[in-house]
Specification:
Elements lengths: L1 H16 L19 E10 L6 E11 L3 E3 L4 H10 L24 E9 L2 E9 L2 H8 L8
Antiparallel strand pairs: 1-2, 1-4, 2-3, 4-5
Length: 145
C-alpha cells in the first residue's frame, strides 16, 4: 500500500510538474477568481538515503464550483488554499508557540504542486520533525490528511 501510494503520488506530481522543478516558494499570479484549481499535496519523511524522502501521505484537491478530491475535508482545504492568495508561505505565518517540540532531527517535507486560479504553483517546505510541522501549520486543514 505504501509503495502504491508513493508511486501514484509520484506519477501525479510528474504529470503536474512537467519540466519545472519544485521551488521553495513560487506564488501564482491569479488570473480570475473563478478559474479552477487542482493541486497535489504530499507529506514525505526522510528515507535514510542521502538522495531524498519517501512520500508517506498524499492528497489531491480540486477547487472550482465544488470542492473535490482525495483530501478528507476538501471544502475546508479549498478555503484554506484560497486564504493564502496563492502564496503557500503564508501557511507558516501563525505557529502555535505555546506547544513545545523536541529538538530531534527527523525531517518532514511538505509539497504543493499544481494550478491555483489559473496560475502555476510549485512549493516545498522542510520541517525539522513532525511536531514542528504540526505546530507551525497550527491546525490549518490544507495538510491535515
Amino acid at each position: 500500500m505504501r509503495y502504491r501510494l508513493a508511486t501514484v503520488s509520484a506519477a501525479a506530481l510528474l504529470c503536474l510538474a512537467g519540466t519545472a522543478g519544485l521551488a521553495e516558494a513560487a506564488p501564482a499570479s491569479p488570473s480570475a477568481p473563478s478559474s479552477p484549481s487542482a493541486m497535489v499535496f504530499t507529506i514525505a519523511r526522510a528515507d535514510g538515503a542521502a538522495t531524498g524522502a519517501t512520500v508517506v501521505r498524499a492528497a489531491v484537491l480540486s477547487c472550482g464550483y465544488t470542492a473535490e478530491g482525495t483530501h478528507p475535508t476538501p471544502r475546508a482545504a479549498c478555503d484554506a488554499l484560497n486564504a493564502t492568495g496563492g502564496d503557500l508561505g503564508r501557511l507558516l505565518a501563525n505557529p502555535n508557540t505555546a506547544r513545545p517540540c523536541p529538538r530531534q532531527y527527523d525531517p518532514v517535507t511538505i509539497t504543493a504542486d499544481g494550478v491555483w486560479r489559473g496560475g502555476r504553483i510549485a512549493w516545498k517546505h522542510v520541517f525539522p520533525n513532525a511536531c514542528e510541522m504540526s505546530t507551525t501549520l497550527n491546525g490549518n486543514p490544507l495538510f491535515a490528511f
